[in-house]
Amino acid sequence: xxxxxxxNCWVIESGEDALCAVVDPGFSxxxxxxxxxxxxxxxKFILLTHGHMDHTLGVRYLRRKSKAxxxxxxxxxxxxxxxFNFAAPKxxxxxxxxxxxLGGAEIKVIHTPGHSPGSVSYLVNNFLFSGDLLFAxxxxxxxxxxxxxxxxxxxxxxxxxxxxDSVEIMPGHGPVTTLGxxxxxNPILGSELQNSAILGSELQNSxxxxESRGVRPQFRSPNLDDxx
Length: 228
Description:
By secondary structure, the protein is of the alpha/beta class. It has helices at residues 29-38, 53-56, 59-66, 149-159, 179-185, 187-194, 199-207, and strands spanning 10-13, 19-23, 42-47, 70-72, 92-93, 99-102, 105-111, 120-124, 127-131, 134-135, 138-139, 168-171, 177-178, 218-220.
């Protein structure tokens, strides 16, 4: 967990080959890099679930240190935040259905717009890095620039619908949960995925201004100071 927005930054380790991917380095890039070095890992990818500053602020430093490419869906390029004279990092585009190889592990890109137009989730084995799409007992905001309640519900229904209950959700903020738990108690995801007939009126009201075994990767979320 890093920064004033308490963003979850995840480090995905591929296993025996000592490669890793860093997901959403929002703050404290020096300490994230120090942790990667202590673990003797080589950063292959810097993965962004979306372009908001609390998920991207540390990209420039990590890219300079690791020489690894930053990956983000191009639809978020116009919506990257520019607070505090922050210049948005240049990233390699990813697309829905794309597969990334991290050693013996495979990372699947799933385009899940709604919180932002270019929001994506990354599926690794039975783990979904959902960014600000889905949280424990909640979903991401849709009232920011480019956000859409219609799209976020569509992403939950169509993109997460086929996934099994056992999938572990590694969110952009807050504690880890599972898809099964959220289907049973998350008021949006449970009702919308299990009873799509509710969709119409909810969407119209909210759109106008609401708010293998093989290699088993390991995941770490550093609990770091608010150092940018």
